[in-house]
Amino acid sequence: MPKRLYARSLIIIIAPMVLLQSVIAFVFMERHWQTVTQRLSTAVVRDIAGIIDLMDTYPQDSGYENLIRISRERLALNISILPADPLPAPGPKPFFSILDGILSEEITKQINRPFWIDTIGDSDLVEIRIQLENKVLRVFARRSQAYASNTLIFLVWMAGSALVLLAIAILFLRNQIKPIQQLATAADSFGKGRAPPPDFKPRGAEEVRRAGAAFIVMRERIERQIEQRTTMLSGVSHDLRTILTRFKLQLALVGNRVDTEAMEQDIEDMQSMLEGYLAFARSEAEEETGTVNLERFFAKLKEEGALLERGFASSIRGEPEIHVRPNAFSRLISNLVSNSFRYAKNVSVAAEHREGWLTITIDDDGPGIPKEMRDEVFKPFFRLDEARNQDAGGTGLGLAIALDIARGHGGDIALDESPAGGLRAVVRIPA
């Protein structure tokens, strides 16, 4: 079965129509067509049998001019008397011909003499030869006299009406399917973190309109919750930053009277954790979709690697221009690459952009992450002291933020072992 709703709906419409017309055509051809042809053929053979009876009852040595004339004028049969030569060899039987079978059956039943018939071809005439005692009777009859010739007209009208009805059904069905397709496109765009189509609004049947209205309400509720969450966290961040600034000022006023180095480090850690958590919470905030050039973006990463004395190589297959949320995408890749820079000497990034999907593979030669821990590292505040994470002394939010951004785009991140011996991170998002 096809996967798309439009194709399935067409099958629902076409299949019963084809089945119904097939049954009608079979019944018509099997009953009506055969019955009419049977009666017409019986009448023609009965006339031929009458002519043979007259020839046997009133033999004429000089010919049968009057019989030939009467047959032509009254019976619409063109007859002629041939010498007593052998009948032609039987011709090939047509694959599908009711006339050939019924006419042969009637001649055998009513006349019961050797005969030869020719019903093959597009000629309007049917030739019949009957072997008599010392002659051969040849009869030409119009095909319409022995055959129901209006059947083709019936089939043409039936097929034509079916095509007209099918065209009307397809046009109506397309109008009914279009609102569902628009709803699916809007939902897909929202799931990828993109703005819905500007002209989207509930259309179509009542059920489709209700689904569209429910989607709009759901989208507005989610956007409102994200906005409230971001606003609240921004306020909390501002208040906590004020307190941390006050702590720093008080430590500065203390001077050298006490050892404040440990306290200052605690404040720095608290500020770092605050910024990391706020960035994680803001990763779902709405951002307009824009265009990112992978070549320029990878060039910046290469400069960053040069400052850290790390080897960096990149490659791009396909179109370098992608459509994503620029800031979120930059944070996604930067988190992963910075993680590799921290624990590896050499990092390679390979991007492949085709069929609406972007796949970025990041390989390094660092210590890697144990297989059983590759799912755990994406949890917020989870840190691997012996392996690696966003930063060993940080908040443990780097990979969590990266995964959250990838899924916000409608994609995902997978970790594996790199051929270089370290960690491989594969990012796949629609772009």
TrEMBL record:
Transmembrane regions: 6-29, 152-173
Endpoints of the signal sequence: none
Entry membrane topology: Multi-pass membrane protein
GO CC list: plasma membrane
Keywords: ATP-binding, Cell inner membrane, Cell membrane, Kinase, Membrane, Nucleotide-binding, Phosphoprotein, Transferase, Transmembrane, Transmembrane helix, Two-component regulatory system
GO molecular function, one term: phosphorelay sensor kinase activity
SMART domains the record matches: HATPase_c, HisKA
Catalytic activity: ATP + protein L-histidine = ADP + protein N-phospho-L-histidine
Broad EC category: transferase
Pfam (any one): HATPase_c
Matches recorded under PROSITE patterns: HAMP (PS50885), HIS_KIN (PS50109)
Enzyme Commission designation: 2.7.13.3
Source organism (scientific name): Phyllobacterium zundukense
Segments forming domain Histidine kinase: 235-431
Protein localization: Cell inner membrane
Domain HAMP: 174-227
Protein name: histidine kinase
